[in-house]
Predict the structure.
Amino acid sequence: MSFPWAQQYEPKNGFTKWMDSRLPIFRLVHGAVGPGYPVPRNLNYFWNFGVLAGFALMVQIVTGIILAMHYRADGAIAFASVEHIMRNVNEGWFLRYAHANGASFFFIAMYIHIGRNIYYGSYKAPREMVFLLGMVIYLLAMATAFMGYVLPWGQMSFWGAKVITGLIGAIPFVGESIQTWLLGGFAPDTAALNRFFSLHYLLPFVIAGVVILHIWALHIPGSGNPTGVDVKSPQDTVPFHPYYTAKDGFGLGVYLIAFAIMVFFLPNALGHADNYIEANPLSTPAHIVPEWYYYPFYAILRSFTSDFFFIEAKLMGVIAMFSAILVVFLLPWLDNSPVRSANYRPKFRMFFYIWLVDLVVLFYCGGMPAEEPYVMISQIATAYYFSFFLIIIPVLAKIERTTPLPNSITESVLGHDEPVAPVATTKSTSGDPSPQPAV
Amino acid sequence: MIRLLAFVVGLGFLAASGCSFVNGFGTWISTETEKSIEYKYLKHAHAEEWSFSGPFGRYDNQQLQRGFRVFRDTCSGCHSLKYVAFRNLEEIDYTEAEVRAIADQWPIQVPSINPQDGAPNTRKALPSDNFPNPFPNAVAARAANNNALPPDLSLIVKAREGGADYIHALLVGYGDAPADVEVGQGLHYNPYFHGLAIAMPRPLNSDGQVTYTDGTEATVDQMARDVTAFLMWTAEPKMDTRKNVGIAVLIFLIFATILAYFAYRNVWADKKPKKKKKDEAAA
């Protein structure tokens, strides 16, 4: 699964030869993230965030497993067990703060990764499966993070769980029964806490499995690149190792500095003060908000305030919130413009930037109380959000006049005034003038 | 087909959100919003200078000990501190013997049983005990406090927006209610508290209310500051360690990242467009 010029794995010593004929795991690593994976040479720093998201997932799994050794999922003592971790477990404060902020950093990495994907049109053929699997990871991460936020059993944990599971109650006729069945009671309590804990422990491993599929699917066509132009010759690519391992090493360093600043100096900046109050079903917080990474969708949920024909406002909000994520899944089919990168699509680029601003507006409104003018602002922003995906993108694909693409990746890197590499180089590596990735 | 369908669904969402917007706008335009009394008088705590502020800020154990005295003499009659143990006081420079004495003389005893017949009983606190709750249960606490429940103070600084600044402002913010504010029976006017009326009576009334032994003048503001610092410590006891480790980690990471950057440039040296060559070509 690579280009024909990919470096072949050759076991060097007795042990690797012995292994290679029995379990070719070194061959697998060599081809996946080693010298055997040719990657376009022109990737910018936005391409670091896939590795960073993978790293964040591993941090979550490692810290989470240790936290689970000290945590107790029981409504009566869950909150106290978290305080026990913070006060009495050796370095427990670090584990918990790293895990809580690590979730935020996982989402930051994923959001930049997805934003990069949309800007550079990476979702387009032949990378639709890479994209769809990535969106599945994102959905699973949302579910996992939601259940994780319930576990400390603070006020926001409890009321957040109540509001979000209440969304299921919006389903006509059967909603409330399903909600009770899922929670194991009429309100979140020990039964819900236990099943959330169980699933919160399970889902990260499901995510890790989908990550493997995601990387597998990526290696079939190979990585995209900022020009969106296909790889044409060996000089368009560099081996993943050492070129991108070195670049990812630097990216990881910058990421860890940002992470360390949050964990060690601002550990509660992304949290909510109310979650340091133990869950109390009899006292509703003044305004219930989810974690920051749900704000845009929370704003969409709350912006449907009027019944729409036969659909109740509440149900409409729930439909819109889930649709807001589902429409993204449809991108490869909504956008059939042959040009991938927004660098060569001036109109798309403009609407994309408006969409980013729109997300920031939705983010802001999602964190604010459900009052005017925030609701009106989020209604306008919601309208643009759906228009962008369902109306603007399909129409633009038809009518947009794109700017000329570079002839090759190498040309885009070295510039026009450099002599284009001799054609002979291309021919010497393979007989096929336009090499196709071989599986 | 899918794009046509998407277009129709998109128009549907536009119509639905537009419909909500028009309704919302109509109501917003037609209803006159009256600024509430609370909006008029509610004050926000301004940022104070604390010994623990900023990445290099650390706890001042002298201040925490003064704060502990304020807590013991003023707060502990009504408020519990259930996540903190007497032994933790050693972390703020009390000696083992002092901690033993503090636990032994603590006015509230720890629930226990009579070792002979198992009957419910109380005993003196030990350093290993957490601070005992002044009330046996929430009902008793409400009954003794005009139906208000004094919150546990272990996490209070982290559990309130504004943190230490807010707690300090609240403690010194009591005053006489303006004429147009109605303060309910048994409540007290405090412009920093949501709703402007708080059940807790003014806890720090006069200078010298708590006896300080380290020569610091026990003004109301000083006592409020000290007890707030103490409660910051109870909420975040590992802060000093956290920041110390953080600085070491950051120094290491910055160093490692600089090295990683040069390693990256070095590896890529032959793949980046060569600017020099261009100059040569021009010459």
